[in-house]
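Thread amino acids onto this structure.
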């Protein structure tokens, strides 16, 4: 139980907490049920918050580290808006927590991986047939099978290009835990992915929308 864990670590010490749990899925906004939105918020966002709150007393006591697994998808979305939403929310939670923990000597770090789908298997290839069968009648009246198939093919092509060097992300996590002066954010991504984040952060929204719309139209 939570109380047993806290008692145990109070006697032996507690240095670092890594919030790594996460799930992903694909689908346009209206394709996903409210239950799915609630499930993703519960695992990706509230799960990390629950764990953090449980161990916060020990982390303050031992001047420890808290590491959160975010994603560059917190900045933009390409067919997985539900995942993007939860990662953007956890980043804002971290931003507040990082400032609040400074006075206690606790470091709060965010890891922002790019596409490591082939390393983590967080997102298996999507099936257009399964997506279509789960759509409501209202959504089926708006979209057609061909469109769903095109979106599924596009998303699967992104997944297939994911890096297999998952150790790069692990190295960032270790640095966040062990470095005398860890970074607030570790972006572990390809140059093209970093460029997208750069455009998203510094250019007007219409520019990023144009780039993503172009990519989606291919």
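Threaded sequence (218 positions):
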């Amino acid at each position: 139980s939570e109380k047993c864990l806290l008692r145990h670590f109070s006697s032996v010490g507690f240095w670092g907490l890594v919030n790594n749990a996460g799930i992903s899925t694909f689908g346009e906004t209206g394709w996903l049920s409210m239950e799915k939105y609630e499930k993703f918020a519960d695992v990706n966002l509230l799960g990390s918050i629950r764990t953090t709150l449980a161990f916060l007393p020990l982390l303050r006591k031992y001047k420890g580290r808290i590491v959160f697994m975010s994603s560059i998808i917190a900045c933009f979305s390409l067919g997985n808006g539900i995942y993007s939403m939860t990662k953007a929310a956890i980043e804002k939670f971290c931003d507040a927590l990082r400032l609040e923990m400074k006075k206690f000597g606790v470091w709060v770090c965010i890891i922002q991986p790019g596409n490591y789908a082939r390393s983590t298997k967080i997102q298996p290839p999507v099936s257009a047939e399964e997506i279509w069968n789960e759509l409501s009648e209202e959504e089926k009246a708006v979209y057609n099978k061909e469109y769903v198939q095109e979106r599924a093919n596009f998303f699967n092509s992104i997944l297939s290009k994911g890096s297999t060097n998952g150790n790069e992300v692990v190295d960032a996590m270790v640095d966040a835990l062990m470095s005398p002066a860890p970074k607030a954010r570790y972006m572990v991504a390809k140059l093209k992915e970093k460029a997208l984040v750069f455009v998203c952060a510094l250019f007007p929204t219409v520019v990023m929308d144009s780039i993503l719309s172009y990519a989606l139209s291919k």
